[in-house]
């Protein structure tokens, strides 16, 4: 390739000549891919098949030096730039149209210090990579619920999962991080070093730099936990769901109950006639003592007459992968989300109404139980600031063909609108879809948002890192972009 036509931050295209490209490539340990190369198509695939963008170039980084060179190259040429960790973000922020994609997915090292109970994690690692290494020592930290999710994106947005009520959100367990900032500076962020930046990356997304290494605090978990699914037929859903809030609030921090409303997959513990039928599922997870766990599980069973369940001791890492078959890559996805401080009866009636007319066998509504330790952290301690949220709802639209887009998206949006009167007004930033740019401030309290805008102006005034749930700097400096390089 003699030249590379690539988009700049202003939206115009510029030509990178062969000499500049060769100089860039020469210092890389990883591979720079362009559309004419066989590996390009595979490299640009991400989890959400609804996002279709074609970067002009993809740098598959093999080392921190590759990331630094990519940032310098992007800054020098004012290039539209995206960053891929696990490629799992619902908005498809890993991909930029005709820009430079910095792909970190090959950098997957996870190093555990069992004595200090800490983990050093590279930015391409997934939850499965993390759990595999940490569970060798019976250790874990709060992460998500799908093992193919990238640790980096989940963490930078705040992160929550089965351990959140006991140990807080993911960023409550982040000790420090190493970053390359927009000006190419390599910095460490912690409570003692660049404390403002450390505050910002704990919930502010990838707006302030590229994290090259995360350091997490670990906790004794597993290797076995008690977890599984209790399934109720839809004709019992109203009675079960209306009892759920009181039961959920009565749990200790060691026990978590999530609700899923969907069509039944072909689970082997369900009668064959139930497959494909609408159901309500209680996802049960506990690290409590055996006696307490059994008492809480019996309380869940008593909500109705479940025709099937599969709950018992299992490896923690296996439970972290339990929902993977329902969240496989390559399918079209669209989400809408709210936080709730409580679950009003009227809200539950809305959820039941919409779950009675799911537009696709793959669509679902889930209620994730939060609170506990996550709510005891001061709201201004991290950029993740919605500490009053006791429940998070994700309207998970998922379907197979583009022909279904209009119907399924409309169902998601209508459900979002119908549940809005009951919500706190906040939202989890990692659940914002690609068409919710104007809603990004709602992921933060107003004082947090103002602080993030100022922080963006300090660390990335050109808004180089804009392919994300973006925080724009208040005052953006301008510079002359080259028409040809």
Which strand order do you get reading across the main beta sheet?
17-14-16-15-19-20-18
- What number of domains? 3
Give the termini separation. 15 Å
Low-confidence parts, pLDDT < 50 over ≥5 residues?
476-485
- Biggest pleated-sheet summary: 7 strands, antiparallel
Any idea of the CATH topology of the largest domain? Vanillyl-alcohol Oxidase, Chain A, domain 3
Task: Please indicate the percent range of residues in DSSP E strands (runs of 2 or more).
Answer: 15-25%
Q: What integer value in Å does the Rg equal? A: 23 Å
Structural class by SSE content: alpha+beta
Helix percent band: 25-40%
- Please tell me what the overall shape is: globular
CATH class of the largest domain: Alpha Beta
Using DSSP, what is the number of strands? 20
> Can you name the CATH architecture of the largest domain?
3-Layer(aba) Sandwich
Tell me, rounded to a whole number, the average pLDDT.
95
Number of helices: 13
